Amino acid sequence: MSIQFNHLKQTLDQQHRQKIFGIPEIIRRTIYLLGLSAIFINPVAASEVQFPKISLTTAESYIAQTTAEDFVQRGVEKLATGDFRGAIDDFNQAIKIDHNSASAYSIRGHTYTLQGEFKKAITDLNRAIEIAPNFDPAYNNRGFARLQMGDLEGAISDFTKAIDINPNLALAYNGRGFAHLQQENIQEAITDFNQALEINPNLVLAYNNRANARLEQGKFKEAIADFNRAIAVNPNYAQGYSNRGFVHLQQNDLQTALADLNQALEINPNYAQAYYHRGLTHVQLSNEEEAIADFQKAADLSRQQGDMTIYQNALDQIQQIQP
Questions:
Q1: Repeat TPR: residue ranges (predicted)?
Q2: Three-state secondary structure readout of 269-307
Q3: pTM of the entire predicted model
């Protein structure tokens, strides 16, 4: 059963605007655990920090000899593997050792944001800023938390403060650009994404977000070029393939869309949005069985991941095919 392409485009546009920054858990964890958290505490990569193996009998002695920053670094290492609980335990220990560790409060607050515990996140980030009023990572992290909460003006204020303190903080430009994009201030958004990429030409998120800004302008060619750049920087960037497939779908280039969405799912077999987009592509190709299978998979995954928007949309699409 086919649907009108204009209606399809409207549905995708609305959904895509809501997902640009990766708010669904599966995307949120992907984009914010790819080495980004380490810069929120200091320039040392978490992978460079070595921790001795300890037994239960030596644990108390080890803790006594370990600095707060050691625990922060180990927490970041756990955070990078998705061990949120273990990371928070280490950040808690860091704060016990040093009640004035702005870095520990900042990264623990960011971890709470990743878990959707925004009240705890804001409390921690406020404390980090109280301790160190010029600590730009804390403003950046609070801006991200406020962005997730829908407080766009608050997010812009925090990202701007982070930039004032550190004009080379590319992630803050990217975050502020996304807030502008959510407000439909497209040119301001593009200006910020451009600045982020001037500072860091390998910032995949900025290419992705600038591409979405181009889509809002109806500039499909430029959007595809940015998704191409994102994929060139990170060939395993599933979101880039999925988003590029979305553009091809909008242009009714269905086989190319299908190829991109297949690639996205090869990289990340648990990518609910890619299954949903591929299901829509199959609808346009009149592949009803394949469409139903993809929508069902999208519904199952999105329900597990807590994304009720994709879940409901997928069920609605199945209902349209099987009334």
A1: 68-101, 102-135, 136-169, 170-203, 204-237, 238-271, 272-305
A2: CCCHHHHHHHHHHHHHCCCHHHHHHHHHHHHHHHHHHCC
A3: 0.78
> What tokens does 183 get?
């407000």
Looking at residue 72, the DSSP 8-state letter turns out to be: H
What mean pLDDT is reported for the chain? 84
Instruction: Give the class (CATH, top level) of 5-134+207-216+227-321.
Output: mainly alpha
Residue ranges per structural domain of the chain: 5-134+207-216+227-321
Q: Tell me whether residue 45 is exposed, middle or buried, using C-beta atoms within 10 angstroms of its C-beta: 0 to 12, 13 to 18, 19 or more.
A: middle
CA dist., res. 116 & res. 205, Å (int):
20
Candidates 96, 159, 153, 92; CA nearest to 120 is: 92
Q: Could you tell me the pLDDT band of residue 238, with boundaries at 50, 70 and 90?
A: very high
DSSP 253: -
CB 302 within 8 A of CB 272: yes
